[in-house]
Amino acid sequence: MRSLLLFLAFCLLVVMMAVWELKRLHENAYARTALRLQNDALLVSEWVKGAFQTSDYLLRDVVTNFPQSELDPERVSAEQRARWVNWLDAKRQTLPHAHSLGLFSPACIRRYTHDARFQSYFDASERDYCVKLRQYPAIESVVSPMVMSNFGRYAVAQARRIPGPGPMGNGFAVIGLDTTMFSALLDRIDTGPHGVITLIDSQLQVVARKPALAGVVGKSIDSPMIRAFIEGNVDVSVGRRVSQLDGQPQLGVLRKVEGLPLIVYQGEHDRVWLRDWYARIWKIGLAALLLLGIAALLLRGHWAQLDLATRLEQDIAQRQRLEDELKISEKKFRTFVEQANDIIYTLDLQGCFQYVSPNWRDQLGTDPAAVIGQHYTRFVHPDDWPAWHSSLREKTSSLEYRIRHAEGGWCWHTSSLTLLLDEQQCPSGILGVTRDISRRKANELALRQARDAAEAANRELQIANAQLSNLATTDTLTGAWNRRYFEQELQRELTQSRRYGEPLSLLMFDIDHFKDVNDRYGHPAGDAVLVGLTRLVQCNLRAADTLARWGGEEFVVMMPHCDADEAVRLAEKLRVLLAEQPFETVGQVTASFGVAQCRPDDSPQSWIKRADLALYQAKADGRNAVRLIA
Ligand SMILES: Nc1nc2c(ncn2[C@@H]2O[C@H](COP(=O)(O)OP(=O)(O)OP(=O)(O)O)[C@@H](O)[C@H]2O)c(=O)[nH]1
């Protein structure tokens, strides 16, 4: 963590140093370029001043040598006037860039000009030079901002007062200077491929520019900053700006031309004056990155060493901790082994005891020393050897077995066995923890015996219940359902039949002259007839039909899903079968049958009553017959 912080601090330091160095280089480049531009601007302004001084000499010459008496052309002859015009033109031609030269009266009326074609009346009282001469009587000479001259060219007018008594003296001379002279002047200056020099007048009009741009001369620059500079007290201003004329970012110097309504702007494109600085950005940036990269590599190496050292320390600490834990664990284990109720032992893979805890003696009466080296079969009941044998091959297992007590007899024990592994993860022995469960086994035996007795009693009870239930629903003599059961079934079937709209019929039959059978052959023979008859009828019914003994020698059969016709057919069949069946001792007997199909409005009683009535009719009609009351 500390090294990371150091690295981050180093990174910060490198970045700060790089930024500081770049800032310093930028400032140097700025200062150096600004100084050079200032010098260049000074040079240009001096040149411009020099140009105006030259023209001013010409004006001085004119003002000094032109006689005052000749200024009013009305008083001068035409020939004399022509001579003065030629004189003025000769003076003008001494300056190659002077395109006009004239003389004005104190009232700013032009009296003479160098060209005979322009001798007409011209009032210059509104012109800037006239206004200034009138406004400031103390000054001798003025230069006006650039104007479009009468000759159709941009020009700057320079005027010089003609000394005289009035506030305006005896008038003034004006020379018109073609602004192309400034362009020619600027052309001679080496500005480099991206340097700019612009001459601007006090009206913020471009007077001349290098490099030249089409239509730029006379163009007004809308710059509050330049306007403020013109109106301010400082003579020089340095700053970065974007040129309004060509849109280039530049470092530029503005310098007022002393005593003239002109300023020089000298600028250099950022690309030029910052060229070295841009190159240094790359170099310094790469150097910083290199430094940071080296630092990062060093840090990584340091971390790797640190990590190794830390891991070694951790390993040592962990090993120490494990050793301590092992000691504690061993101590605990020994205490646990020696004080526990359970017998703890180890076996080799063949099943011989290698260690047994001291309580073996307490629980099994043998000294532990005598047990060590012995095979488990020496102590374990032979019936439990298979369980032991298979457990010794398991990773973990538990088993219950009998083990011999030194004083004779067997104790029940349970053991949990765990396979022990050596450092190579190979089985090296078996750890066993055993506990005496003799008491539990005795309890289990008692419990099992009690449960067996309870189950036997339960079974007897179920048999008795079944018998009781049978008795409650069946007739003991014939085995047919009894009347009570039949009535329950009748009610249930009646409900079912109504719910599903199925037909349901009832058959009631009674043995004919049964009293005579009893009387003649005895009651047991009569019983035998009843039993035989029941079997015969039962064998000829469907599984869904219910046969019940209604009472004495009278029986009923309920037939679900069976209409009156089917019921009559069955009754007829039974009647014939019975009549043809010989009974032991008694011989053949007959029976009469009454049939009734259940009606929708029937109650059990009304339905049974109709069957009974049909039976009565069969009896009345001579017996051994079937009758239906539908
Ligand atoms: N053996 C024997 N006889 C019974 C048993 N129950 C009723 N009886 C006898 O059945 C006889 C019924 O006689 P009756 O009611 O006069 O009818 P019947 O003699 O069969 O004459 P009809 O029915 O009119 O043909 C009686 O003698 C009863 O003692 C029984 O469980 N075993």
Compact description:
The chain has 630 residues and is α+β, with helices and mostly antiparallel strands. The chain has helices spanning 2-65, 78-93, 128-135, 180-187, 224-231, 270-273, 275-339, 359-364, 368-371, 385-391, 438-473, 483-500, 514-521, 523-539, 564-580, 604-620; strands at 98-104, 110-113, 141-143, 147-148, 154-161, 172-178, 195-201, 206-210, 236-242, 249-256, 262-269, 343-347, 353-356, 396-404, 410-421, 427-436, 504-511, 546-551, 554-560, 582-583, 587-588, 591-597, 626-628. The radius of gyration is 73 Å and the shape is elongated.
Overall description:
- The chain is an alpha+beta fold and 630 residues long.
- The protein folds into four domains: 66-177, Beta-Lactamase; 183-275, Beta-Lactamase; 340-436, Beta-Lactamase, CATH 3.30.450; 474-628, Alpha-Beta Plaits.
- It contains 16 helices and 23 strands.
- The protein has helices at 2-65, 78-93, 128-135, 180-187, 224-231, 270-273, 275-339, 359-364, 368-371, 385-391, 438-473, 483-500, 514-521, 523-539, 564-580, 604-620, and strands at 98-104, 110-113, 141-143, 147-148, 154-161, 172-178, 195-201, 206-210, 236-242, 249-256, 262-269, 343-347, 353-356, 396-404, 410-421, 427-436, 504-511, 546-551, 554-560, 582-583, 587-588, 591-597, 626-628.
- The strands form five sheets. Strands 1, 2, 3, 4, 5 and 6 form a six-stranded antiparallel sheet that branches. The chain has a five-stranded antiparallel sheet with strand order 8-7-11-10-9.
- Helix 1 (2-65) runs antiparallel to helix 7 (275-339).
- The mean pLDDT is 90.
- The chain binds guanosine-5'-triphosphate (GTP).
- Guanosine-5'-triphosphate binds next to strand 17, helix 13 and helix 14.
